[in-house]
Amino acid sequence: MHQPDDLDLSRFRFRGLHPDILLGTASDRYAGWIGQIYSGERYLERLPSRSHKVGGKSYRETLLPVDSLEEYFDHFGVIEIDYTFYQFLLDADGRPTQARHVLASYCQHLKPGDAVILKVPQQIFAQKVRHGSGYLANEQYLNPELFTHQFYHPAVALLGTHLTGFIFEQEYQRKTERVPSPQLAQALTKFFESIPPDPRYHVELRTEAYLDRPVVEFLAAFGIGQVLSHWTWLPPLATQFARVGRRFFNAGRQGIVRLMTPRGTRYEDAYARAFPFDKLVEGMLQPGMIDETVVLMEEAIRQGIRLHIIINNRAGGNAPLIAQLLADRFLSSLPTHPR
Hints:
The protein is of the alpha/beta class. The chain is built from 10 helices and 13 strands.
């Protein structure tokens, strides 16, 4: 069991930062974190590499084995698992998928108090999905049966009390693709009425125009959290929070902030600048992201909300170093510094 006072920013240990603040990352197992989060000698001769194509360019990624998750949770309190965004846990015949097998292997290395946030498959919450070089309308959009039987139930059975949140991420929609906000709110209402009630649901809408009254009323009525995301085409975090009345809606009194990419920077460009994720990239980290996240942390504590801060390498080059900056700024904002 992790100690509640396990805080040492110089060693990237963040678990004791505050009882209501959990720092974590989007994905893990990056070789670029050796010497920060991971002990290199522990994984000698166990560092496979793979080719990963982003924006038409191939990158050679080196990954740590799954058991590195044990070291990860010596430093962070929560992890966001995103490979479930691309695949259900069970196929249409009820057979385990590769995503389910990988998640099961992760579960073998979880300890009491380790928290997991899962991304819901895009086939459930994306109105369009990538097909070849373009996109097609998603025929499974907001299908409650698929979510319930091929994802929700197997996820709950696997993770048990470690499962602290589900993220339903909807893609950015251009003006010509959008539906009126009342129509979106009505569709979301029908979907969430048809799936198992759960206080761990959070929705990330990447289209600013949807952050208005009908959608806000839907979130409030169902107790569904609004994911505040520092992402390419969304307004600043402070603006997103203000658009919903500076409220946290989640019925479980939890919140999620995702620090994904610099605002105005596309995914593939952010990836290219950040790779191989072993250092902060000069000029990439936007100062407002840190400042506004600290304000959200303070507000969450004031409102009695347990806030999960999920940091992506693409937000500035190296997630552990961003977490270190964020934690230091947060501690400096407190009346006394527990360092």
